[in-house]
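INFO  loader      accepted 1 record
INFO  loader      residues=298
INFO  predictor   begin
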Amino acid sequence: MHKLMTLQSNIFILVSGFAVILGYGLDLNANLFVLFILLGFIVVLGVPHGSLDVLFASQTYNLNRLTHWLKFISCYSMAALGVILVWFVMPSFFFTSFLILSAVHFSDDLNLVNSKVLKLSYGFSIITFPSLLFGTELIHLYAMIVNLETATHLVTAAQFISMPIGLILAVQLLNKSIAIRTKLELLSVCALFVLLNPMLAFGVYFCVMHSARHLIRSHFFLRKFTKQAFLNALILPTVAVILMGLFVWWIGTNKPLEVDMIRIVFIGLAALTVPHAWVLKKSNFPASSITYHSRDYD
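INFO  predictor   done
INFO  writer      dumping tokens
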């Protein structure tokens, strides 16, 4: 296992354990300051992994001319704006689709290449497991993005789906073909999303597992780019996204600050996830990342 992946894995397992111990029972509704700090971490530490899309696109489409870059940026922006438009017109459809897409997208994080059912079960556990002990909190969170009725239906469905998913994952923990480290990572993810407030669990997972692992895999996949190009790609698009989010908040609604922040962060993540997933698919990154992971990291 490569030392960078070992380090990231160890940090995630340790942070998850400390988060479960220290954060168990924490009510973010009564700790808005903690909530805002958490949202800040999600933006600053989570968003940059998507900023590397400019390098993936450059490598995949040979963006050597200004006109090529303008075309890519226009298509990427239009896709993101299209997602936001869908939220305005069909919020229930938008949010349900976003949750499903997120589960599929997250399913590539762990080295579970032997079974598509297991991969998808892991991905959907991230979406459904918070409903087991934090159904009320999850409904409150979803109701900031969609109406209360839709939020309730989604959480009820998640509770129903989580049972067979939990059974599949429990059985697979006995599978000797899965590395012990992968099992520890799987247990850590499950503990986060079952025992912690959904927002806190997502913040730890998104920053310390999903984003961090994506950055390390990208480092191997995007070898032809210089360190400076890598840093520029990480920083400049991230700053642009943050400035856009602040602008939207400044001209935003009269909703409570908590609701505005939740909407901006999660609708923004949804808007960026669609073109992000598309760029990765076209670059063959998911398949390649699995190859790197299996060959270099086990």
